[in-house]
Model the fold of this input.
Amino acid sequence: MNLTDILESTDVVKPFRMLLYGVAGIGKSTFATHAPAPVFIQTEDGLVGINVPKTKLCVTFQQLLQCLSLIRQAKGQFKTVVLDSLDWMEELAAKEILEKNKAYSDLSKFPYGQGYAALKSKALEVMQLLKALYYDGFNIILIAHSKPEKVVNPDGTDYDQHSPRLNKHVNPIFKEWVDIIGFCNFSFSVRERQDGMTKTVKVIADKDGASNACVRTITLTGSPSIVAKCRYTNMPDVLPLNGQAFFSRLLGDQTNDK
Done:
């Protein structure tokens, strides 16, 4: 073995791994439909009206594992696996743990943190199957809802930060693995407007001051207020939540090769 045997070629184009999270109903699933040849694995019933290849709704954790395993056989048919959603995957995992341990009504009731340890183990099962899909050449998109989390600031006042709505034992497993974490939100400001002679009302406006304007965006750079990241240098900090334009920029000539 020599040096060339252990160095990876810079010409290798790897699939992308993305965690897409944000407020409910903003269009995360619709955004993901513009990825190359997607297939959705459903853990929640949120694709009504969206015509895209998808599995039947997974109502048990074992069904989810089976779907992830079977998708590997469809490499020629699909190019992107979309897990919709991660937080409902977590619900299925917790449900299975509790069904096997009927003495406990909640994961927090297990002694010595054993309930959350079991949940982490279930998440790692999903991660192993996602890694297998990734190494087989599939792009991976993980969809989740958002939640505010209290961040303890050792240098000052604590603050809230938006992050994927996952248990703290599960969140790092997926956040650290993906190349992109995109936070989807409405971009607007609230400004005062004079309504008549005496009344002042607050209205939604865009950054230029236009009333009733509300733009959907995806943020790829983290801050104290949101969890986000992007390992691709060709992507800006914030973009419109437009899947076709996003994947065109991310993938260049590869995009929309369906």
In short: The first strand starts at residue 17 and ends at 22. Helices lie at 3-6, 28-32, 61-71, 86-100, 114-135, 171-175, 243-251. The CA atoms of residues 217 and 240 lie 4 Å apart.
